[in-house]
Amino acid sequence: MPQLLPDGGAATWRQVSGPPSPASAREFGVRSLGFAHVKGTRHEARPRAVVDAHGPVGDREFCFVDVERQQVLKTVQNPRLIRMTTSLVDDTLTITLPDGRSASGRPVGSGERLTCYYWKRPVDLELTDGQHSALASEFLGKPVRLARALRGDVVYGAGLSIVTTASMRELADRSGHHELLDEAARFRATLVLDTDEPFIEETWRGRDVTVNVPDVGALRVRIGSPIARCAILDLDPITGERGSNLLKTLAVSRPRNEAGEPYFGVNAEVIETSAAPDT
């Protein structure tokens, strides 16, 4: 089985073993690395993120919950979340609204714990006290609490998700949504890779590959299952407003799961990491 390994110090992949293949022998640049510190808030580029065996550190470390309903807030049901930006520096979480108002501080546990069901699985959350919850409650128009989750507990799939530019271009052509490459955050993928062949990423399933991300280091990852998509694709990645036909286009042009959700992108798991060399 072929492997893809870093080509020198560039952010590229190249095949170094196995039979030659015109598609897989090409180099694929890493366009971006991104995630959200609070589940459902804006997906942002994090070029200097630390990545370990569980994925990027700080990726969806927090979430907002409706305590009365025991629900983790999801973007598709609460699109205003997308308008909230976040940063996490030295354990200080800052949440900023589009009008410039913000809440900043270390999320301190209140001693209260809450079990919520996230995609039919129970997750144990630690509720926090502080101004983050008050700001979000006012903005969302309902009482919510900021909670801290264990690594991966409020992540839908694997620790990493991958989409490629060729697949996005193909979808852009089919849907007429030609600005899609500039709106890659719609897919909320950890890694966006530059490719020439649409959906080549699906042929990598089960392979261990290594990607060298500038300022992060080399990540050896195992490519997993394709990702089933929902209506979040039709939300503008900056405003949260609905208005595209991307999901409908995918539904008529791509394989779907038993629930009728079309596939786009792939899951991946981190197998090994090595830090970027000092410059």
Strand and helix layout:
Blueprint lengths: L3 E3 L6 E3 L14 E6 L8 E2 L5 E2 L2 E2 L5 E5 L4 E2 L12 E5 L2 E5 L5 E4 L2 E11 L2 E9 L1 H10 L4 E4 L11 E5 H11 L15 E3 L14 E6 L3 E12 L17 H8 L9 E13 L4
Parallel strand pairs: 15-16
Antiparallel strand pairs: 1-2, 3-4, 3-16, 5-6, 7-8, 7-14, 9-10, 10-11, 12-13, 13-14, 15-19, 17-18, 18-19
Total number of β-strand segments?
A: 19
| H/E topology pattern | EEEEEEEEEEEEEHEEHEEEHE
- Please report the number of helical segments: 3
Strand content: 35-45%
Rg, rounded, reads 19 Å
The outline comes out as globular
Q: Termini, distance in Å? A: 34 Å
How does the helix and strand content classify structurally? mainly beta
**Order of strands across the main sheet:** 4-3-16-15-19-18-17
Major sheet summary line: 7 strands, mixed
Percent helix = 10-25%
Organism: Brevibacterium iodinum ATCC 49514
Pfam family, one: MOSC_N
GO molecular function: catalytic activity; molybdenum ion binding; pyridoxal phosphate binding
Region (Disordered): 1-25
Please, could you describe this protein's structure?
This is MOSC domain-containing protein. It holds the Pfam family MOSC. There is one protein chain. This protein is mainly beta and 279 residues long. The protein folds into 2 domains: 151 residues, no CATH class; 88 residues, no CATH class. Helices cover 10% and strands 37% of the residues. The chain is built from 3 helices and 19 strands. The strands form 5 sheets. It has a 7-stranded mixed beta sheet with strand order 4-3-16-15-19-18-17. The longest helix has 11 residues.
